[in-house]
Amino acid sequence: MIFLSAAKISQKDDDTDPASCGMLSRSTRANMNFLKKGANMKSLNSMKVFVVGTLSIGLFSSTALIPATAQELPRVYDASMPRDQQITLAESAASAEVSSKATVYVLGPKGYEKAREGTNGFSCFVSRHFVKPAETTIEPQCFDAEGSRTLLPVYLHGEELRTNGKSEAEIKADVASGYKEGRYQYPSKPGFLYMMSSQNRLSAIPEHGTGIFPPHLMFYAPNMTTKDIGFDAQPKLDYLGMTHPGAGDNLIVVIPVASKSPADMAGR
Fold this sequence. Notes:
Number of strands: 14
Number of helices: 5
Shape: globular
Oligomer: single chain
Strand content: 15-25%
Number of domains: 1
Structural class: alpha+beta
Low-confidence stretches: 1-65
Radius of gyration: 17 Å
Largest sheet: 8 strands, mixed
């Protein structure tokens, strides 16, 4: 996350997504063992899955990615992508009933720009960070009202710094200080964000670049523990887990069994 923590990649503190310094941090491979089985879901059976270490999605880490080959999207996601294509990609994070009424942001030459004012409190945009000089992640996501209030500003400011030439390390440091100084806030109540696009191209350990990760949902669960969801310890499931039980930056991550993007379903 993509967006909310100081997550670790392959036990190195090099997750440079601006949000990765905030709410979704410190998740480790052990935290998300449930995702190891996720790559075996029926929807992925015909695709070659390979292990690349821990994966940062702004919120959590994973051990399975699908090679991002033959992708139509550019290796570097930037303001050169036509505005209408950016909007379509951002909206792919959630079902049309949600995303069509959401505020949408697109990437401009100086950072994110509001392309449309929404009516339902949700905010959709495509997050990114550089994993190599010529490669970025592509992270379509839609925050609910609480995430729009607390987490979206992290991304907006992070991208402003990026377009001004700041490195990912400098952005990460700025976000970390922002939380410490009170410029940013963690979500104050349960809520969630959609990352249900089939175009999630997320970062792994740098030498492996990016890969495709299944559509998924993330729920803010501040201070919740595994006991709150009926488990004595981290659940060993292929569809459910927690990033940091008991902490303010905790998230519940859910991978739908079908792992299918709403955009791929009939009736979108």
